[in-house]
Design goal:
Elements lengths: L1 E2 L7 E2 L1 H13 L13 H14 L2 H4 L9 H14 L4 H6 L3 H28 L3 H27 L5 H13 L1 H27 L2 H7 L4 H14 L1 H29 L9 H5 L2 H21 L1
Antiparallel strand pairs: 1-2
Length: 294
Amino acid sequence: GVDDWGEGGGTVDFCTVLWDMLGSCWCGSLLGCWCMCCGVCGIAQEAREVKRLVPKRERLIDFITFEKFRDFYGAIINLREQSDGRFMMHYAALSMLSKNLVKSLAVVTAVLFVVALIKVASDGGSSLAAFCIYLLTFLQAFLVLFLVHWKWNRFDLSLDAVVKYFASGFLFAPGFAMVLELIEQFVLGVVGLIVAALTTNAQDIENMNSEDDEIKKKAVEGFMEGHNFLIVVGLFCFSYLVAGFAEELCKYYCYLMLQHPDFMNEVEVMQNDENNQQETIQEQDIANNTSHER
């Protein structure tokens, strides 16, 4: 964490500092303007209104299916209390979203297998080998999950949470990482070209752009021999900033954006309707008092 950051002081994480830095550059500071990106400000305003008007218990729902946490989390709690380690019972306790994700994976796998068989029968290609690579990719991940989660920690984290976090990292993180990496590669490439232009004479630059492959190869090799430090810095940036930083940042935010009752107060998730009505009345009173004060 970083100590004494911002007006409130205290300790915050690196991502908060990074966001504050970007926000201070753009959000309201650019000649008093707010830069719009895919309507994110409008979505944030709607989220604040929903948070003000809808009780927290009613906002504890799954993506896509909008199934309430309390509708499926009770079965997960019962499995833990009874120490029931049967896989089918854990599967039965999955939420609608998790079951749909598992079924979607099975359907996609079956379709790819049929397509591979059709291509083999029609042109004798290596589609089955590609399909085996696809299976091995998931087999490796499932083997790690079996050892790390199912064998020793199946009651610490629910199977429902594992399915959702795996899907979040598998479906969303790669796309975000690719976009970030392309942006970082473009920026680093421009910086590298500027540095190379400032540290290389005109003849060497002309040789590196030559149509003669032999001249071009010798010019590039000569540049690399004379700029070892620059090459090392470039490799470091591409290895840790482009690949490592982008991928870890995407995984962190894909984990952060997903809410799951395993990481919430159990009483708050499973509270009864009477408590919910009292909470609704209290939140409405707070909202009304706030509006009157304004």
